[in-house]
Design goal:
This protein has helices spanning 16-33, 52-69, 86-95, 100-104, 107-118, 125-139, 153-170, 215-223, 241-254, 258-262, 268-294, 297-325, and strands at 3-8, 35-40, 77-80, 145-147, 178-180. By secondary structure, it is mainly alpha-helical. Strand 4, helix 7 and strand 5 (178-180) form a beta-alpha-beta unit. It folds into two domains: 3-182 and 297-326, HUPs (Rossmann fold, 3-Layer(aba) Sandwich); 185-295, Tyrosyl-Transfer RNA Synthetase (Orthogonal Bundle). The protein has a three-stranded parallel sheet with strand order 1-2-3. Strands 4-5 form a two-stranded parallel sheet. The longest helix has 29 residues, at 297-325. Helix 8 (215-223) runs antiparallel to helix 11 (268-294). Bound molecules: tryptophanyl-5'AMP. The site of tryptophanyl-5'AMP (TYM) has 27 residues, from strand 1, helix 1 and helix 6.
Length: 332
């Protein structure tokens, strides 16, 4: 059976980008068609300046939201990364395989490193090695498919390179995974800065729709979205990124096609209004279910505990095999 792994890192509140780019497919397709694992990858949240209590809060909130969105613990394995030691164990082996040059080429490292330096912060070594930990997350489970948004493609490519290199040097151990992306909305853009990705860790929230935003807040953010100075409604991601982004969002909500939708609208106002209502309706059940689940943290904890047990049982034998293949003595 196909094995699927994906994750979300608790560096901020989950956004519409996370939902449309990743989580919705996990819920609607991946958990039904495959043996799927989904993780709140909390170790990744330590790669930047962070407040311990906030990381804990966001980790629990992310897990609760994933359940609220419809992940079913009877169908998939939901767990917190730091509860399964195999991720860090395998990450070290992969650091012994990856080169300094290939991790420094990662676009996210360059962008985040530049931002940290500009804010006068030092860049943590773990920010550089982060894609190697991500590769370990994926490879530890013999993963075939990694459902992600566009921004993770380069990291999955590195993961593939490391798997192939390990197998060639030390004998076949890892499955070589591939990234899968949604047909539309694989890169939802910030509503205020349509040239940048809608990212949960950005400072200003005006261009970001959070899954837990009230309906009125969602409407306001979308009605104030930056559009373009052109006349008609056209689907042109390079020339009219603001409008194209709204068309992407609306067509993702309606399972439609952004080019076809562009022909339906005469004005930006009408497009914004329909997009706002579609997003409000899309998120309403998630928010309602989140409120119910947040009132029962013991249930969420139990799901995470049993998820971690299952994940450990899956990862352990494979990571042990990798330890032996690379030349380490078995622990006995
Ligand atoms: P993260 O937490 O930034 O995002 C989680 C998922 O949401 C997708 N995504 C988006 N999709 C479309 N438009 C956007 N604006 C948008 N923003 C985020 C991301 O592509 C991702 O699929 N490195 C990963 C976390 C990770 C991981 C893994 C993922 C760690 N280990 C192993 C897959 C497999 C990250 O930072 O995702």
């Amino acid at each position: 059976m196909t094995r699927i792994f994906s994750g979300v890192k608790p560096t901020g509140h989950l956004t519409l980008g996370n939902y449309l780019g990743a989580v919705r497919r996990w819920v609607e397709a991946d958990q039904h068609k495959a043996d799927a694992l989904f993780s709140v990858v909390d170790l990744h949240a330590l790669t930047v300046e962070h407040e311990p209590a906030r990381v804990r809060r966001l980790s629990r909130q992310a897990a609760t939201l994933l359940l609220a969105a419809g992940l079913d613990p009877e169908r998939c394995t939901l767990f917190v990364q730091s509860h399964v030691d195999e991720h860090a164990r395998l990450s070290y082996l992969l650091e012994c395989l990856a080169t300094d040059g290939e991790v420094r080429r990662m676009v996210q490292y360059k962008e985040k490193g530049t931002r940290a330096r500009a804010a006068g912060e030092s860049v943590r070594l773990s920010l550089l090695t982060y894609p190697v930990l991500m590769a370990a997350d994926i490879l530890a489970y013999g993963t075939d498919e990694v459902p992600v948004g566009d921004d993770q493609t380069q990291h999955v490519e590195l993961t593939r390179d490391l798997a192939v290199r390990f197998n060639q040097r030390y004998g076949h151990t890892f499955t070589v995974p591939k990234a899968t992306h949604p047909k539309v909305a694989a890169r939802v853009m910030d509503l205020q800065e349509p040239g940048s990705k809608m990212g949960k860790s950005h400072e200003s929230g005006a261009g970001i729709i959070y899954l837990l935003d009230d309906a009125d807040v969602v409407r306001r953010k979308i009605m104030r979205a930056v559009t373009d100075s052109g006349q008609g409604v056209e689907y042109d991601r390079a020339g009219s990124p603001g409008v194209a982004n709204l068309l992407d969002i609306l067509s993702a909500c309606e399972n439609g096609n952004p080019e076809a939708l562009a022909g339906v609208y005469q004005s930006y106002g009408a497009l914004k209004k329909d997009t706002a209502e579609a997003v409000v309706e899309l998120l309403r059940p998630v928010r309602e279910r989140h409120a119910e689940l947040a009132a029962d943290p013991a249930y969420v904890d139990e799901v995470l505990r049993s998820g971690a047990r299952r994940a450990r049982d899956m990862a352990r034998p494979l990571v042990d095999r990798a330890y032996q293949a690379i030349g380490l003595l078995p622990a006995g």
